[in-house]
Amino acid sequence: MAPKLSKADKKIAYDRKLCQLIDDHTQILVAAADNVGSNQLQNIRKGLRGDSVVLMGKNTMMKRSIRIHAEKTGNTDILNLIPLLVGNVGLIFTKGDLKEVREEVAKYKVGAPARVGLVAPIDVVVPPGNTGLDPSQTSFFQVLNIPTKINKGTVEIITPVELIKKGEKVGSSEAALLSKLGIRPFSYGLIVLSVYESGSVFSPEVLDLTEDDLVEKFAMGVSMVASLSLAITYPTLAAAPHMFINAYKNLLSVAVETDYSFPQADKVKEYLAWPAPPVAAADSGAAPAAAAPVEEKKEEPAEESDDDMGFSLFD
To answer: In the chain, what are the domains?
Structure first.
């Protein structure tokens, strides 16, 4: 049986382990561990086993070990971790893909009941429908102003009700009602708050960016630099092509209007000197059809009626 270590020995062992992990890894995820149980944390360790290590501990102990390690090794970049060690957080040291490790950690969330005094991380809405509770339990609903009716000997909620809002503390009545209804509204697990990589610290949302997103953002930045450079007539790599094109246009307009020319303008002036293109009919090779002569319509003399002859039928 291994001898039991004293508190001082445990601190020395923890410091040695933390410093070794810092030397072996350049990628660290800082994750919040509020309401995460030991069994759940053990499952996360199993899921990450191979290229990642989860290390929990007191913030003061981690900060002290990091400062001493930075002084000994001269690795001052690791000091950027210290401001991130606030609250109940742990460190995930990894050599794998940061996005994949983050997604793996997110899989191990478990449902949890709403306990009294707990700050709600999300809005809690009680859905309408039959609760299965007997009419003697209507006092809970009346206290919380939830409209109900008695249907077939059980309490039925008429409309959906927002019971708890995000950021509010769970009261005793809300906790008791959710427990009676069998609703576990919250889910908890390790939540990645920040990412450390080779001295740089950034938000985990950066891991969701794709190559297309990066190209789009880069193109937008180049466009803004080019626009600003053109507006203040300051040459930059982004604006230089536009400046050359604009200068060429100005020289070309002068060459077109005058006898002055240069090699890059000769072709344009030659094109402008060409005669107007023939009509489409001539391009097709068909001779334009001669207009057909319009036949003059001869007026036929009107037939003379019998009245014009001066005779009647009986003459």
So the answer is: 8-109+189-208 (3.30.70.1730), 124-185 (3.90.105.20), 211-273 (no CATH)
